[in-house]
Amino acid sequence: QVQLVESGGGLVQAGGSLRLSCAASGRTYRSPTMGWFRQAPGKEREFVAAISWSGGTTDYADSVKGRFTISRDNAKNTVYLQMNSLKPEDTAVYYCAARFGPYSTSDAHYDYWGQGTQVTVSS
To answer: Which of 2, 6, 53, 106 is the most exposed place for a label (fewest CB within 10 A)?
Structure first.
């Protein structure tokens, strides 16, 4: 089992920045692929960013490319999502997820999920 705990969400004005963190505990002797997903009210959950176990591969949704950066510190079992130039449409609950398997950006392939952290961007 893996437990994931997100932090760093909050209320920010458009154009501002936030950094989300996701701390993993439990079955951390293997470094999984990590992903960030988000779900806005009334919408489907969508992919935001993913990073391979080594950090050598990253992917981003088109809507966040150039503004968000995913990174990880395996020594701390923590993955980060730096979010810059935030827009009101970035408002959502952000979830981190872990996958013990081949690299994937599909939420259907992720095995463990955090409880989510709210990000609200005001205009």
So the answer is: 106
